Amino acid sequence: MALASPHPLIVDPGDLDLARTLVLQRLGRYDPTATADPGHFAKTFRTPANEVVRTTLSHRDDELRIEASGPGAEAVLGFWRERFPIEDDYAAFKPEAPRMRRLSDRFPGLRFLRVPWLFDVAVSVVLQQRVRYVDAVRAWAQIAKRLGERTADGFVLPSAKTLARTPTYEFQSMGIDPKRARALVALAREETFKPFLVPETSFVDLRRRLIAIRGIGPWTTEMILGFGAGDPDAVPTKDLHLPRTVVRAFGKSGPATDEHMLELLEPYRGHRFRVIRLLWAHEFSGMSRRPWG
Fold first, then answer.
1. Do 223 and 122 fall into the same domain?
2. DSSP-H helix ranges across 14-149
3. What range defines the domain where residue 206 resides?
4. Distance of CA 267 to the CA centre of its chain
5. In sequence order, what are the residues at sequence separation of 6 or more whose Cβ sits closer than 8 angstroms to the Cβ of residue 95?
6. DSSP single-letter state for residue 76
7. Residues 40, 280, 33, 132: what is their CA dihedral angle, to the nearest 10 degrees?
8. Could you say which of 42, 218, 234, 292 has the lowest number of CB atoms within 10 Å?
9. pLDDT digits (tens, 9 = 90+) for 103-131
C-alpha cells in the first residue's frame, strides 16, 4: 500500500476508551489484518468499493488521531468524520441497580461505533459459531493468508466475491466445518448480489438482511449488530453461556434461559448490549470470581 495518507482527522474522543470499545475488532493476538496496543488500533480492510485501506486510530490525552492510507483513504476518513461525536446515548446510561452502577464505574468509556470493516466483522462472527474462540482465530488467519492479499502491514481479508466462489472443501482444509463454510458463502453471495454491510444501512435493514441468510441466526445477527454496526441494544440470544451470566449477575433465581435473560434486561432497553458488554468485561477481567461489591 504505497499511497500516502491524506491529512489525519483529529477529533475530540469525549469519554471514549479506545481499547474497550474496539475489543474483538482484532481477532486474536496474531490477527494478520489488525494490530492493537493501549491507545492505538490499526486495521487493513476492503471498502465497499473493494479498495484496500489501512486505517489507524490513536488516542492520546484529549485527542483522537485517525489516519488512513490507500486508494479509498479519503472516503474512510469521511466515514470516521461522520461518527464523531459518538451518538450512542452513553450519557443517558445511568443504571439504578447498584451492581450495574459499579460495573459502569469500573469499565468507563465503552462506546458503540459502527466500523467501516463491517464485512470483516460479519465473517469473524460466523467463524465463531459453535466453536472455541481459538479455532475461530486460527480459521480467520488462514482465510486472510490463503484467500486474501499480502499488504505492507500484513494481510487483508478476501473480497465478498472471492469468498462467494470459494468451494466448501477449501474452507474445510482450513479447519472450517461445512455448516460454517456454507454460511460464509451465503453471506458473501448476499453481499456480492446487493451490498448491505455498508455505512448507510440501518439497524432494522441489517437485521432483516442478516437473519434471512441461511446459516445466520439471531446470535450471529446480534453479535454483528453490536460489535460491528454499533447497536448498544443488541441482544444475542441462543448463546450457550450468556443467560447464565445475566441471571447470576442480577442475583436472581430461576432458569438461565433466553426468556429469563430478556426479562431481566428489559429495564435496560436501549442499552442492553452495553449491559452485556459490561458483564463480559467483568468476567474476562477475572472479577467474576470475586463477590459483588
1. yes
2. 18-21, 73-81, 98-106, 118-127, 133-147
3. 118-227
4. 24
5. 101, 104, 268, 275
6. H
7. 150
8. 292
9. 999 999 999 999 999 999 999 999 999 99
Q: Are residues 108 and 133 in the same domain?
A: no
Same domain, 183 and 127: yes
Query: pLDDT digit string (tens) for 37-46?
Result: 989 999 999 9
Residue 127, domain member (yes or no): yes
List Cα–Cα distances, 260 to 36, 219, 270, in angstroms: 36, 16, 18
Cβ atoms of 88 and 111 within 8 Å: the answer is: yes
CATH number at residue 204: 1.10.340.30
DSSP letters for 155-203: EEPPPHHHHHT--HHHHHTTT--HHHHHHHHHHHHHHHHS--SSTT--H
* Enclosing H/E stretch for 35: strand 34-37
| End residue of a domain, out of 194, 209, 227 | 227
- Calculate helix-pair angle for 133-147, 118-127, nearest 10 degrees: 130
How does the average pLDDT of the chain come out, rounded?
A: 94
Q: How many domains does the chain have?
A: 3
Q: Is the Cβ–Cβ distance between 34 and 41 less than 8 Å?
A: yes
Same structural domain for residues 257 and 207?
Answer: no
Judge if the upstream peptide bond of residue 85 is cis by omega within 30 degrees of 0: yes
134-168 burial by CB neighbour count: b if 16+ within 10 A, else e?
A: eebbbbbbbbbeebbeebebbbbbbbbebbbebeb
- pLDDT class of 293 with cuts at 50, 70, 90: very low
Q: Contact, 129 vs 290, CB < 8 A? A: no
- 4, 91, 149 from 44: Cα distances, Å: 15, 31, 10
Half-sphere exposure of 144 (CA within 13 A, CB side): 28
Cell, residue 165: 466462489
- The pLDDT, as a whole number, for residue 1 is 42
